[in-house]
Every structure is written in C-alpha cells, then in structure tokens.
Amino acid sequence: MSQEHFNVDPTEIAKFSSLAHKWWDPDSEFKPLHDINPVRIDFIQQYAGIENQRILDVGCGGGILAEGLAAKGGHVTGIDLAEKPLKIARLHLLESGQKVDYQLKAVETLAAEQPESFDIVSCMEMLEHVPEPSSVIQACAQLAKPGGWVFFSTLNRTPKCYLLAVLGAEYVLGLLPRGTHDYARFIKPSELARMTRSAGLDTVEVAGMHYNPFSRAVTLNQDSSVNYLVACRKPA
Fold first, then answer.
1. Is 124 labelled as part of a ligand binding site?
2. pTM of the entire predicted model
3. Which pLDDT does position 1 carry in this prediction?
4. What is the pLDDT at residue 4?
5. How many CB atoms lie within 10 A of CB 170?
6. Angle, to 10 degrees, between the axis of helix 189-198 and the axis of helix 133-143?
7. What's the confidence (pLDDT) of residue 20?
8. Is 80 annotated as a binding-site member?
9. Which domains are assigned to the chain?
10. Residue 169 — pLDDT band, cuts 50, 70, 90?
C-alpha cells in the first residue's frame, strides 16, 4: 500500500517498525505502554463500557490496547499503517487467544468506507506522531455512531513535558528510544479541544495521567501538563 497519499510520516512508520519485535516484551522500550494500558482501559470502561461494544483502535501498533479491550469483551478492530507491528499483533493473537480484526488501513480511508460504525473509537499515543492530527480526529468522529464515544491520549506541549517525556524518558532513563517524540508535535489540551469541537465532538472529560517510571505506578489526576486522556462523545 502506498503511504504517500495518507496522513502519515514515513519516518515514524520506520521507527516503530524497527522495534516491532519488542512490542510484547513488558521490559522493553514499550514498557511504559504496558504499564499505562490498564489505566487507559479503565478510563474507557468508566465512560463507555466495553463488553459487546464495537470498538475501533486507531494506530493500534502491536495491539497492546486492542487486545486489552478484546479481553474485556469488546468486538475490536485495530488499524495501523505500519505492516511489521500489525504482523506482530496478529501473531500475538495466537498466543493470547483473543480476537481482533487487524487491518493495514488509514483512518481517513476507513471513515469514508464505514462512517458511523463504531460504539467506541480510541486513538491513544498517536496524534503526536502524524502530520495532521486534525484529520485523524475528524475521521475518528466520522467513524463513531451517533451517541458513541471517542477517546484520545497525547502529550502536552509544555516545558515540564519536554523535561519528563523527552529528556527524562529518552535521554536520561532510556525508557524510550531517543527520537521517539518530536516536541513540536505535542498538542495542548486547548488545541485538542478546538480540533474535537470542529469535528462535532463534545468533550466530557480531560484527565492527566501520571507515570512513575521507578515504581511503574500510573494514576489519573487533574494535572494535564504531561500526558493526558480525553473522553469525547458524539451527539446522538
């Protein structure tokens, strides 16, 4: 599939593809994703419920969130534009026994094909990796059924976030590969709110997510200065 027509950065695809074999190693560079996953799932569960819901995970990568949602009884589709992580995701289903429909597809393409098809759309830790996050948000909104839920998580463009998520996580602690994040692409909650509003979504909750890399504890609070989660609803 040609990626040139899609809202995708080939450098980002290559970056995550090179690490694909480590996706399900909880002590690898993906350790933070494994650690925050239960909190992300609980956040979705709290607002939308998961069991028997038709769910789309946008930018699913190797399937950590998608599988977690399937394990809670969701009927999950995962889409990504990186082939290697998708192959890893499909292989892991053989190990876990979960059912997820993984597709190599752009969210904008799926939105044109299957508008208003999903009860829940999640797009976690992805917006800061694409050239046009507003296009992704618009497509997520299109894919949600009327009355459906759309969830985002991303990084705030603050000095504190740069210190913790870039310098700390990538260069000091080595939790993430150097170059994982481009600070210029981080998104302020006010900017995300503007984009979700333009897409016709109502913001219900913005929650800060605090990750302690030493204890590996994850908590939600009101401080959205670094990582934050957003719950949106599409008007019925």
1. yes
2. 0.91
3. 37
4. 40
5. 17
6. 50
7. 77
8. yes
9. 10-233 (3.40.50.150)
10. low
